[in-house]
Amino acid sequence: NAGVTQTPKFQVLKTGQSMTLQCAQDMNHEYMSWYRQDPGMGLRLIHYSVGAGITDQGEVPNGYNVSRSTTEDFPLRLLSAAPSQTSVYFCASSYRGQGATYNSPLHFGNGTRLTVT
Amino acid sequence: KQEVTQIPAALSVPEGENLVLNCSFTDSAIYNLQWFRQDPGKGLTSLLLIQSSQREQTSGRLNASLDKSSGRSTLYIAASQPGDSATYLCAVGRAGNNRKLIWGLGTSLAVNP
After folding, report:
1. Would you give the end-to-end CA distance of chain A in angstroms?
2. Closest Cα in chain B, distance from residue A45 (Å)
3. Residue A98: helix, strand or coil by DSSP?
4. Which residues of chain B are within 8 Å of residue A107 when distances are taken between CB atoms?
């Protein structure tokens, strides 16, 4: 049971390049999400999904796209990288959504450290 | 607007001490509160989840309490060990919004042998 797997672990991009951060979970979780973590700003939600074919925006969605074609995978696409997107990105999943009747803990991947020059 | 504060930002204690980490939130209308641990260069690991109807949760040497009326949660670590050294974060789930957690910035704990 691998849990939440993120690839790559590290990535350096030039401004304007695009790339996809991969996230896969093998726990049959309905809910998946992407966060970025920046010093002094804490964790901020980028996008989330409550099931295959359903995605929605979080707090900081601009410059990122997501799709959820299967329960297991939730890739994050950077459309045109900017230095402001230098950050550590975490994918997280839970059995159900983070809602009043769905009190299930979040499981995190080990993160992708992205640097945009 | 819900805000979550964790004080102190950093804490250093000798091995064996019992310690308390604090998490404060400004809006008592929450549906749960979660405590996480983050080791350097790693993702977050869920430690304890307290539902809004509960007052505390325990797991091994960890005990988390929740007092919604005062907007506080504490994470108690008994008989601390060097392996407990990590950053501890709390996150509050807002009532009426089933998609987002509000995060504190964390307390960086160092347990010295």
Report:
1. 36
2. 8
3. coil
4. 46
The verdict on a CB contact (< 8 Å) between B101 and A59 is: no
Q: Each residue of B62-102: pLDDT tens digit? A: 999 999 999 999 999 999 999 999 999 999 987 665 557 89
What one-character-per-residue DSSP string does B29-94 give?
Answer: -EEEEEEEEE-TTS-EEEEEEEETT-SEEEETTEEEEEETTTTEEEEEESS--GGG-EEEEEEEEE
Q: Once rounded to an integer, what is the mean pLDDT over residues A2-30? A: 96
d(CA B56, CA B65): 4
Q: CB-CB: which of B32, B36, B100 is closest to A58?
A: B100
Q: If interface means Cβ-Cβ distance under 8 Å, which residues of chain A face chain B?
A: 4, 40, 42-43, 45, 48, 50, 56, 58-59, 90, 92, 97-100, 102-111
CB contact under 8 A, B32 and A103: yes
Is pLDDT above 60 for A66? yes
Instruction: Name the token pair of A53.
Output: 């074919």
Residues A15 and A86: their CA atoms lie apart, in Å, by 10
Could you tell me where the beta strands, DSSP code E, fall in chain A? 4-7, 10-13, 19-25, 31-38, 42-51, 54-57, 64-66, 76-78, 87-94, 107-108, 112-116
pLDDT digits (tens, 9 = 90+) for B7-38: 999 999 999 999 999 999 998 888 889 999 99
pLDDT digits (tens, 9 = 90+) for B31-62: 889 999 999 988 999 999 998 889 999 999 99
User: What are the chain A neighbours of B103 within 8 Å (beta carbons)?
Assistant: 42-43
